[in-house]
Amino acid sequence: MPSETDYLLDTHVWVWMLEGDLRRIGPRTRASLSEAAFGGRLRVSPISAWEVGVLVRKERIGFSVPCAQWVQRAVNAPGISLAPLTPAVAVDSSFLPGEFHGDPADRMLIATARTNQATLLTVDAAILDYSRRGHVRAADCRR
């Protein structure tokens, strides 16, 4: 992974990182995350906070504290900052180049990465394929 890159964490990567589930994240990515956190180059989209809330409500994930408290702690974790959710991001998510599925969270994450020239860290096969087609910078966090 390139150094000095800003990284946007896909929702699952953010949860794994904050919950200490680092076995799901590859050693090269862990090293890059540590370096990026130290340099203040880790970003999380507000859409990920929404997605975490949806997943908790659907009981697909759970935390030892209430969801709102977990999100507040997670967005304030050292080295992490919120990526701006701007009108430009919202519009770009509606007009992504090429073909991409309709999941609004994924579309917003891609648009956020594109707008902020960040690399989206994910294991999502559709996003990684979209990246291989040259539409967004993304990296498989299992490496």
Chain-wise SSE layout:
Blueprint: E1 7-9, H1 11-18, H2 27-38, E2 42-44, H3 46-57, H4 67-75, E3 80-82, H5 87-94, H6 104-115, E4 119-122, H7 125-132, E5 138-140
Parallel strand pairs: 1-2, 1-4, 2-3, 4-5
Helix pairs in contact: 5-6
Descriptive keywords:
7 helices, Rossmann fold, five-stranded parallel beta sheet, 5 strands, single chain, 143 residues, alpha/beta
Structural class designation: alpha/beta
- Mean pLDDT across residues: 95
How many distinct domains? 1
* End-to-end gap: 9 Å
SSE order, one letter for each helix or strand: EHHEHHEHHEHE
Please list the strands of the largest sheet in the order they lie side by side: 3-2-1-4-5
Poorly predicted runs of 5 or more residues: none
The biggest beta sheet, please? Answer: 5 strands, parallel
Give me the CATH fold name: Rossmann fold
Shape: globular
What is the strand tally?
A: 5
Known CATH architecture: 3-Layer(aba) Sandwich
Rg calculated over all Cα atoms: 14 Å
Helix content: 40-55%
The total of helices stands at 7
* Estimated share of beta-strand residues: 5-15%
Class in CATH? Alpha Beta
State the fourth-level CATH superfamily.
Answer: 5'-nuclease
Descriptive account of the structure:
Helix content is 48%, strand content 11%. It is built from seven helices and five strands. A five-stranded parallel β-sheet has the order 3-2-1-4-5.
